[in-house]
Amino acid sequence: MIFDTHAHYDDEQFDEDRGELLGGMADAGVGTIVEIGASMESSRNAVRLAEQYPFIYAAVGVHPDNVGELNEETFEELKTMCGHEKVVAVGEIGLDYHWDTEPREVQKHWFIRQLQLAREMGLPVNIHSRDAAEDTMTIMKEYGRGLGGIIHCFSYSLEMAQEYVKMGFSIGVGGVVTFKNGRKLKEIVANLPLEKIVLETDCPYMAPEPNRGKRNDSRNIHYVAEKIAELKNVTKEKVIEQTENNAKLIYFS
Ligand code: NI
After folding, report:
1. Which residues, 6 or more positions from 237, have their beta carbon under 8 angstroms from its beta carbon?
2. From the CA of 5, how far away is ligand 1's center (Å)?
3. Average confidence (pLDDT) per 10 residues, the chain, 253 residues
4. How far apart are CA 177 and CA 239, in angstroms?
5. Alpha-helical regions (H) of 61-147
6. How many A from CA of 180 to the centre of ligand 1?
7. Spatial separation of the C-alpha atoms in residues 202 and 200, rounded to whole Å
8. Can you tell me the distance from the alpha carbon of 228 to that of 244, in angstroms, rounded to the nearest whole number?
9. How many Å is the maximal CA-CA distance in the chain?
10. Residue 19, Cβ neighbours under 10 Å: how many?
11. What gap in Å lies between CA 34 and CA 221, rounded to an integer?
């Protein structure tokens, strides 16, 4: 069944029908969802959702746009959450030089601290990196080695994807692979072993074609799996089965 490695169901866009939607996931072929924290509040919400639904797990972490809220006290709370039995990763963490919401030095500081937290807690990571290819790679080489995890919504070159794979990371592929302008990601998917690819929505954002621009949810991953199958010349079922195994290896072992 489909394993959605990166979702944000705590988003207010789901307030009206969250329960109904999540209740229908199994019937739509979605077996597992990892709800990803991007702030202290959404990390707490991720843990809460994971407690509520057997098939939902949580990642806790603070996105580079929100690291202004981290201090020794909130960091300690993050660490406590990492000990929860349904927390399977630290994320999403990283660098975002597109929005530059927080100073880059502050982003780097808390990115490194959260990588160290993952190591201390024995958890994999879920990485967000936008317009910050080189600094992310430099920090990952120094602090991320051996952690394992996912480079989410990958937007860099094939060469860089291959370098992350060599370092033991997997590439998160979502709606972008179905976009007309998603040529770079299509090339990456075609060239990487299927064993190094995992599926993700980043919902409510990044809905694939033919639903681009609408609210996204895990059921749309069928379109992503179909596109990957086409690019790799395998069946959609094979894509779903292999990526589910990949995700389980990352998050549950
Ligand atoms: Ni996200």
Report:
1. none
2. 10
3. 98 98 98 98 98 98 98 98 98 97 98 98 98 98 97 96 98 97 96 98 97 98 98 98 98 95
4. 14
5. 72-82, 104-121, 133-139
6. 22
7. 6
8. 14
9. 50
10. 11
11. 14
pLDDT of residue 228: 98
How many Å lie between the centroid of ligand 1 and the Cα of residue 7? 6
8 Cα–ligand 1 center, Å: 7
CA–CA gap between residue 253 and residue 155 (Å, rounded): 27
Distance 46 CA to ligand 1 centre (A): 12
Sorted by sequence, the CB contacts under 8 Å of residue 195 that are 6+ apart come out as 242, 246
pLDDT value at residue 68:
98
Cα-to-centroid distance, 212 and ligand 1 (Å): 16
Name the token pair of 28. 């739509």
Instruction: Identify the residue whose tokens are 């954002």.
Output: 205
